DNA sequence: CTTAGTAATATTTTT
DNA sequence: TATTACTAAG
């Protein structure tokens, strides 16, 4: 333990000071690429060398990917004992305790639902409470209200009054819908993402027995990406600290999750809130060459906010970032994949390249081009495997087998069968509610769906295989194939996904765990099929890319309309957040940063708050890079401006 | 009530 | 592009 310190793993002075900090609580302000992960890993190593019990260290990350990376790095540095460190996301950590002490938290068996299910449930609630009313907020907006209010620890009414323009009466009606939604959620034993955090925080703060138990479990709480924690998450940290010590690492210039309730205050007010806390800074960038940082620094300097960031490259100088402009996004996509192929031909592994995109939608041409050229890739944040219609069809059976109160699952499963529509299904579901014994459910199904004997058979088969997920899927596919074949005319293509599902299920102990894993950590089709492949290009949304890096980074769609994104225009805070998104994207690159964009911006119009918004570079205020000084970039000329029909003028003139 | 066919709808970011 | 929403006919 700890024997490697300073020999193999070199830290600079700032990092070492942070890793070995011996006071109380600490906030580490760490700029992009300043070695946040290394410092956290080194801190764990330091604690272990001081004989801190690994089981008493808690490491909270923002995503599962980050948690995985941390575990790997800790293992490499400090060995087997780090397996005992609790490392995971907030959601993961909280859920673990809800499961361990359900009685103390007051929750029984539950299924985690994703945003899709939330939306559907909200649609039902909205339908019964307000009926048809085009003026009334759509279900998607209602889900956002509900989630945002809870993540910022406000009541619904308080949030609506403060952040929306709705009148008193509308607020009343919205509250009514959300109440109905909550009731439906409980009826189905559903838990949405926010319930996990909220119930944990509530138990932690309102149940003294529970708080004492939880507080006594950890001595050190390490938090990654502190700038993206929200008030609800802060409540959790605040409840767990003392005597446990907080070690929070973050960078306000990389805060890009305000839409999820993330609050800078967790960083800016840290020392006010936590008595005696110390602030340490990491300012030397180990990731990128100075030229990449020059452009990034310039971007932040344009902001009216003072980020007080001026990253300095420890690696010195390299190539200037490039900016390429194309007239069509198909050309842009093809250029990138051709460049990739050429580099690979030249001996560079695929894995050294990352393509960053503002939106998953914006990457569709690149994805198509990668497929065309047979370049292996994984798309992090791309279309989710579990969201395609045929997969949902299949999973509906597994869901109801796992949780018989799952009404959305029943509705989907039942209506797949001939002669069963919404009404018939609703009647059957009504009969099923409140019954938990599988054999009784089976007999009701058999009784009510005589025309489709396989409906009940398939259910019975899956229930028997609850702890053999792979076999359960095989059985489900077997029984449902005739149905799905008829429903989809491109069944051949779709059935491949179900094979993929079988393979994924192998690694899981129960159906419940299988469903939960991929609900909390959605997986895209390309990720699922390339799971074991190491050498692949990474296509990734900027939001998912926070915390990662690659030697060569392509930044897709660097053009007006994307930075800031049109949907954020009009709200100053949102626009400013978009600048940070671009900053995060740029600072991922280690050696080369290649920005591409199209001049003909998205055809013509983009819907924006029910208006049409033309943004084709008419207003330079709307594009962060419109005033970017040319000397910061490499020599690529914008293609359209390249004058090929002009006589050359001597430089001596 | 169900179903087949057509129209519309929405594509920011995520645990 | 793909899925969901709606409408008219069975």
UniProtKB/TrEMBL annotation:
InterPro entries: DExx_box_DNA_helicase_dom_sf, DNA_helicase_UvrD-like_C, DNA_helicase_UvrD/REP, P-loop_NTPase, UvrD-like_ATP-bd. Pfam families: UvrD-helicase, UvrD_C. ATP binds at residues 30-37. Residues 290-547 form the UvrD-like helicase C-terminal domain. Gene3D superfamilies: 1.10.10.160, P-loop containing nucleotide triphosphate hydrolases (3.40.50.300), PCRA, domain 4 (1.10.486.10). Its EC number is 5.6.2.4. It catalyses: ATP + H2O = ADP + phosphate + H(+); Couples ATP hydrolysis with the unwinding of duplex DNA by translocating in the 3'-5' direction. One of its GO terms (molecular function) is helicase activity. Keywords: ATP-binding, Helicase, Hydrolase, Isomerase, Nucleotide-binding. Residues 9-289 form the UvrD-like helicase ATP-binding domain. Belongs to the helicase family. UvrD subfamily. This is DNA 3'-5' helicase. It comes from Roseiconus lacunae.
């Amino acid at each position: 333990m700890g024997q490697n310190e300073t020999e193999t793993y070199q830290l600079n002075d700032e990092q070492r000071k942070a890793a070995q900090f011996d006071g109380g609580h600490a906030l580490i302000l760490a700029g992009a690429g300043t070695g946040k992960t290394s410092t956290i890993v080194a801190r764990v190593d330091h604690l272990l060398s001081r004989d801190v019990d690994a089981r008493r260290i808690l490491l909270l990350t923002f995503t599962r990917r980050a948690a995985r990376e941390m575990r790997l790095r800790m293992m490499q540095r400090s060995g087997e004992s780090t397996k005992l460190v609790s490392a995971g996301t907030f959601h993961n950590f909280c859920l673990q305790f809800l499961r361990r002490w359900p009685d103390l938290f007051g929750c029984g068996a539950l299924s985690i639902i994703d945003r899709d299910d939330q939306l559907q449930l909200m649609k039902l609630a909205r339908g019964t409470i307000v009926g048809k009313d085009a003026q009334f907020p759509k279900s998607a907006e209602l889900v956002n209200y509900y989630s945002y209010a809870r993540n910022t620890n406000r009541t619904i009414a308080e949030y609506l009054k403060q952040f929306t323009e709705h009148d008193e009466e509308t607020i009343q009606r919205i509250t009514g819908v959300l109440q109905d939604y909550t009731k439906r959620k409980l009826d189905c034993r559903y838990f949405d993402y926010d319930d996990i955090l909220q119930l944990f925080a509530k138990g932690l703060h309102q149940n003294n027995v529970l708080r004492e138990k939880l507080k006594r479990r950890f001595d050190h709480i390490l938090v990654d990406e502190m700038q993206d924690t929200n008030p609800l998450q802060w409540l959790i940290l605040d409840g767990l600290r003392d005597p446990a010590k907080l070690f929070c690492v973050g960078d306000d210039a990389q805060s890009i999750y305000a839409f999820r309730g993330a609050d800078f205050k967790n960083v800016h007010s840290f020392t006010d809130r936590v008595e005696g806390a110390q602030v340490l800074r990491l300012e030397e960038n180990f990731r990128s060459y100075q030229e990449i940082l020059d452009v990034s620094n310039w971007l932040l300097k344009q902001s009216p906010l003072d980020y007080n960031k001026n990253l300095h490259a420890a690696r010195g100088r390299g190539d200037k970032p490039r900016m390429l402009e194309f007239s069509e996004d198909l050309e842009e996509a093809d250029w990138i994949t051709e460049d990739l192929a050429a580099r690979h031909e030249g001996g560079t592994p695929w894995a050294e390249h990352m393509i960053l995109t503002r939106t998953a939608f914006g990457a569709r041409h690149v994805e198509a081009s990668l497929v065309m050229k047979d370049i292996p890739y994984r798309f992090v944040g791309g279309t989710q495997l579990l969201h395609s219609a045929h997969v949902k069809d299949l999973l509906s059976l597994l869901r109801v087998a796992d949780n018989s109160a799952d009404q959305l699952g029943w509705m989907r499963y039942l209506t797949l069968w001939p002669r069963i529509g919404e009404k018939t299904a609703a009647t059957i579901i009504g009969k099923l509610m409140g019954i938990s014994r599988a054999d009784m459910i089976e007999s009701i199904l058999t009784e009510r769906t005589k025309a489709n004997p396989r409906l009940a058979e398939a259910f019975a088969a899956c229930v028997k295989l609850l702890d053999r997920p792979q076999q359960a899927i095989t059985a489900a596919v077997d029984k449902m194939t005739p149905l799905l074949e008829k429903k989809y005319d491109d069944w051949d293509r779709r059935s491949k996904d179900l094979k993929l599902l079988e393979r994924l299920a192998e690694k899981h102990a129960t159906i419940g765990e299988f469903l939960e894993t991929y609900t909390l950590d959605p997986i895209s089709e390309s990720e699922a099929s390339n799971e074991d492949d190491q050498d692949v290009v990474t296509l990734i949304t900027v939001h998912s890319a926070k915390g990662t890096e690659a030697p060569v980074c392509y930044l897709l769609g660097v053009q007006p309309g994307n930075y800031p994104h049109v949907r954020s225009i009009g709200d100053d805070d949102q626009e400013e957040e978009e600048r940070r998104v671009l900053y995060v994207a740029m600072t991922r690159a280690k050696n080369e940063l290649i920005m591409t964009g199209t001049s003909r911006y998205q055809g013509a119009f983009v819907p924006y708050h029910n208006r049409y918004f033309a943004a084709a570079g008419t207003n330079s205020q709307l594009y962060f890079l419109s005033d970017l000084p040319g000397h910061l970039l490499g020599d690529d000329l914008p293609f359209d401006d390249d004058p090929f029909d002009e006589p050359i003028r001597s430089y001596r003139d």
